[in-house]
Amino acid sequence: MTAPVLDQNLLAGNPKRRNKEKTVGAIFTVAAGLSLVVSLLIVGSLVFKAGSFLGDLINPPEDALAETRDGMISLSNLWSEQWAPRFMQFDIKTLLVASIIVTIVAMAVAGPIGLGAAIYLSEYASPRVRRILKPVLEVLAGIPSVVLGFFALRWIGPNVVANMFESAGNQSLLAAGLGVGLLTIPLVASISEDAMRSVPNALREASAGLGARKFTTSTKIVLPAAVSGLVAAFIVATSRAIGETMVVFLAAGGSGNSAQFTLSPLDRGATMTAAMASQASGTDGTIVETAFNSLFFVGAVLFVITLTLNVIADRFVRRVRQQY
Prior knowledge:
13 helices, 72% helix, three-stranded antiparallel beta sheet, 2 domains
């Protein structure tokens, strides 16, 4: 008995469905390609404008020379004592150090609190409590940063920082760091809790079977097993803290048009994002092109920092990731 011959047209399905699937696939392909094009345009704009800025420092244009105090600008202006674009002072370390200070303070707040909240939600909270607290925590992540910026300006600065340190004013890098820390707590807690919840219960049960307490199981078993997700959470939170604008713009007290170099978190200062926002909001035609292009140079430096953090985190996560 011969086997029946299958028609390939029957296996291909309905022509209308095939056409619909091709159309949907084409739409998704265009969407993916559009996102790639937009990303390349953004990076290209940063690179081009940053290159123009560095070129102006090497070969200063006449309008830039007219705006300086002494009539001389060069690459040495990138390493001076202040960030003052309108006077052709582009000390990048002023913004970089201020950004690092704010980020360290923010992660010192968000790291322990966010991780502690994640451990509680994952290991200690009952299902009912978790169903209530987890959405609340995620809602906190949706609070506009400008609201937390005003909170840091009107309450954290005068009531916390100024009371703890007499030399500190209402606006300081420390106040901005505390505000950014509050902003990133929900991010650390949410991602860390998801990573810990993904650890199989078999590991917890095995640890309990050996007589380990819940605290020991949480710290010695669950945390090491979820280390890849925890590292991802901290890297995402760090990138968020470095890129935060409104909180530091309001609470740090530094002007993007003029900021002095400082190593003290009790002083006023301007981070990279705050300097960009402050200077861009004041570009009313009175600023020369060289100073305006310095915004793109700062943006390019910020992009390199965040890209480096993500690459390092990706390599680390790939190395320590455990699949169950």
